[in-house]
């Protein structure tokens, strides 16, 4: 299969929309503690996903897989020249490490 993806870089450190968790009178952490005055004061999160000709790099981890499995058959073609969802999956652990939406190739 021939897969054509646009080169792109996605900063995954977007707002988490959890403003209430930072306000002492609105935060709700009762399932974590009996103390009612618990609230967040700071969260630091930085991650990214980059796809280019050399492969894919995500956060501090990098993995590039290349193969040539040509057997004389014309490969199916997928061209991502439109908005799409993407997932980076760890096959051995069977879990999704990153997911996102690419909306403007």
TrEMBL record:
<feature type="domain" description="Serpin">
    <location>
        <begin position="14"/>
        <end position="105"/>
    </location>
</feature>
<keyword id="KW-0646">Protease inhibitor</keyword>
<dbReference type="InterPro" id="IPR000215">
    <property type="entry name" value="Serpin_fam"/>
</dbReference>
<dbReference type="InterPro" id="IPR042178">
    <property type="entry name" value="Serpin_sf_1"/>
</dbReference>
<dbReference type="InterPro" id="IPR023796">
    <property type="entry name" value="Serpin_dom"/>
</dbReference>
<dbReference type="Pfam" id="PF00079">
    <property type="entry name" value="Serpin"/>
</dbReference>
<dbReference type="InterPro" id="IPR023795">
    <property type="entry name" value="Serpin_CS"/>
</dbReference>
<dbReference type="GO" id="GO:0005737">
    <property type="term" value="C:cytoplasm"/>
</dbReference>
<keyword id="KW-0007">Acetylation</keyword>
<protein>
    <recommendedName>
        <fullName>Serpin B6</fullName>
    </recommendedName>
</protein>
<comment type="subunit">
    <text>Forms a complex with the monomeric form of beta-tryptase.</text>
</comment>
<dbReference type="InterPro" id="IPR036186">
    <property type="entry name" value="Serpin_sf"/>
</dbReference>
<keyword id="KW-0722">Serine protease inhibitor</keyword>
<dbReference type="GO" id="GO:0005615">
    <property type="term" value="C:extracellular space"/>
</dbReference>
<dbReference type="GO" id="GO:0004867">
    <property type="term" value="F:serine-type endopeptidase inhibitor activity"/>
</dbReference>
<dbReference type="InterPro" id="IPR042185">
    <property type="entry name" value="Serpin_sf_2"/>
</dbReference>
<keyword id="KW-0963">Cytoplasm</keyword>
